[in-house]
Specification:
CATH superfamily: Alanine racemase
CATH topology: TIM Barrel
Number of helices: 8
Helix content: 40-55%
CATH class: Alpha Beta
Radius of gyration: 16 Å
Strand order of the largest sheet: 1-2-3-4-5-6
Oligomer: single chain
Number of strands: 6
Largest sheet: 6 strands, parallel
Strand content: 15-25%
Order of helices and strands: HEHEHEHEHEHEHH
């Protein structure tokens, strides 16, 4: 968030920023202010805080619900069953709109190993659409190493920063270089 707060004001005004990464509740005000979409909502309390901050800012915030499709202990995101249990409560919150699901599968040098995770996220999206009785337009999945497989499985948003800009050296090193 600190890097975004420093760099976003320096960029052209027509850019549309998406927040991806673990969002702490105490950073929701900044996230609502700086980002057009928050792609990593992983709990009802976080969604409630975003809704509260969006109300204060008099804006509606599109969100994606992050799903931990592989059940990795080292990653954030909803367990699929918990997402289904909280989905209607999140959908009822004012000033936020659920636009879809997001996932980051386990890293692999073989893109095909991501396919089952992408399939599971697509199936979760279909299940969420049945529960809500409405289409969710987005699946955010796939990164530089596996985006082709993600697109084959229905991705509408991909994250290809490394393919475009090369590997990051870390936020501290990037900030120091600036």
């Amino acid at each position: 968030m600190q890097e975004a707060k420093a760099k976003i004001p320096l960029c052209p005004g027509k850019l549309r920023w998406h927040f991806i990464g673990h969002l702490q509740s105490n950073k929701c005000r900044d996230a609502v202010e700086l980002f057009e979409v928050i792609q990593s909502v992983d709990s009802l309390p976080l969604a409630q805080e975003i809704a509260k901050r969006a109300e204060q800012a008099a804006k509606t915030v599109p969100i994606l619900l992050e799903v931990n499709v592989a059940g990795e202990a080292s990653k954030f995101g909803y367990a699929p069953e918990k997402l289904l249990a909280e989905l209607e409560a999140i959908n009822a919150l004012p000033k936020i709109e659920i636009h879809g699901l997001m996932a980051v599968p386990p890293w692999s040098s073989e893109p095909e190993k991501s396919r089952p995770h992408f399939q599971r996220l697509r199936e979760m999206k279909e299940r969420c659409e049945q529960i809500l009785g409405a289409a969710l337009p987005h699946l955010s999945m796939g990164m530089s190493g596996d985006f082709e497989v993600a697109i084959e499985e229905g991705a509408t948003m991909i994250r290809i920063g490394t393919a475009l800009f090369g590997p990051r050296t870390g936020a501290k090193a990037a900030a120091t270089a600036d």
